[in-house]
Every structure is written in structure tokens, then in C-alpha cells.
Amino acid sequence: MANSIRKMALNEDGLFRIDDFEFGRPLGKGAFGIVYLARLKKTKFICALKMLHKSKINEYSMAEQVKIETESGYKLNHPLILTMYDVFHDEKRFYFILEYAPHGQLYRFLQKLRRFTDRLAASYIYQICHALEYCHSKSIIHRDLKPENILVDCCGNLKLADFGWSTKIRHADTMNTTACGTLDYLAPEIVGHKQYQYQVDNWCVGVLAYELLSGHAPFEGTDDETKVKIANINYSFPDYFSQPARKFIDNLLQKDPKKTYAT
Questions:
Q1: What stretches pass through the bilayer (predicted)?
Q2: Contact 176/196 with Cβ under 8 angstroms?
Q3: The CATH number of domain 2-98 is 3.30.200.20
Q4: What is the pLDDT of residues 80-100, one digit of tens each?
Q5: What pTM, to 2 d.p., does this model score?
Q6: Active-site residue among 86, 144, 184, 201?
Q7: Is residue 144 flagged as an active site residue?
Q8: 74 is in an annotated binding site
């Protein structure tokens, strides 16, 4: 993918420079940078350009995560995962050239509709499970699944995005202990500072399914309250949740990761 898009660069070496792009509106902003709608001057190719400030990355010791995000982007090639075309950098920033998903975050759809029907939620969960299954087959754990990190393309299909907190399992028996992700979506083993593996993504699918069907996460509260609720698997269903939805979510939100449904 990188080799083919590098033909669109203006430079003889085939490497991108920031001057190769025309910038449109900002698409999103994070702690380490910003994402812009962009267009390559040479071919008018539309993309999203994610810009990360090196000063911020160094300040928070995130260089290793940027490396992993880059490796994950080059390795993953799936229709339900946002394509990373290439990465380049200059003295001040890293730049990720990404596929543009024109309908933006799934979170915005959820805010507009307040909650999804069983049919729509099931369709979205099905797509995310396929994307995660592929990630896991490539030994990658996403670790930050949430509606804000799921984008919607021009056809209404989902694109799993933002691998900034992802990690790679080097060996089948390798376990992680790094606490990261979004609090409402953290698995009990992360909250409890225990070792974990792929099952933390499966837990997130359960939280996501609950949020898509209700409009809010199952363990909402203050930070301390949320941690206690997660540790004790303390949640309840609104009356309108169907029995199949309850069973699916219950089988994912398990305290013992070995009992969690595989995606």
C-alpha cells in the first residue's frame, strides 16, 4: 500500500513532505495532535492526515506507542479497518496518511439517534467482531475500542480506527500489564492491574453493544465508582433490552477472561 501511494508524492525520492498536501477542515483532535481532511496536490487524492507533535510524544514517553501504531498500520489490511497508507515525519511532527471516512465517528450517529435498534446494533457489532478477529489473527490487541474510535465510510460500513493504544503479542503466551484505554471500557483485569491478553478487546465489544443499545456505557459513574462497578461486574439492563442482547452482553462481560466469548 505504501509503495503504491508514494507514487503520488511530488518528490523524486518518493517520500512525502507536508508541502505535498492541501489542507481542509479539522476532523478530530487529541492529546498529541490533530487530524485534518487533506488532498494530495499531485493527484487530488483525498485522505485524512493525522499529525502528532513530537514534543508531546517525548513529554509523555509515547515513542514506543507511535512505533507500534505505525507497525500495526502497515500490517493490517482489512475492509473494516481504516487503511493507513503511509507515515512520514519532519523535525516537529509525525504524519499518518489515512483513509478518509466521510461520515465520521460512530459516536456522532449514536448521539443523534440516542440509541440504536437491535438490528442496527447487531450489524455494527458483527462488523467490529470481524475487524477484531482479523487484528487478533495478526497478534494485535486494539485496547481502545469505543464509538469515538469507530468511523463510518461513504457506504455506511464501519472502519475500526485509532491504533494509538494497540499492542502486539510477540508470543502466544505473552501477557500485558500496561494500564491504558478509556475508563468506561476497561476490562476488570486492567482495572485490577493484572496480566491480560486478547480478551480485553472482547470485553470492550460487550461494553460497546450495551452502549449502542442504550446510549450510555454500563458502568457509568465517577472514576472511582466506575472502577468498583467494573471490578464487581455491577451493571443492569434497561427493560427494553431483548433477551438475546442480554445474553450476548452477559457472555462478554465476564470477570474471568477465560469465560469471555471470543469475537
A1: none
A2: yes
A3: yes
A4: 999 999 999 999 999 999 999
A5: 0.91
A6: 144
A7: yes
A8: no
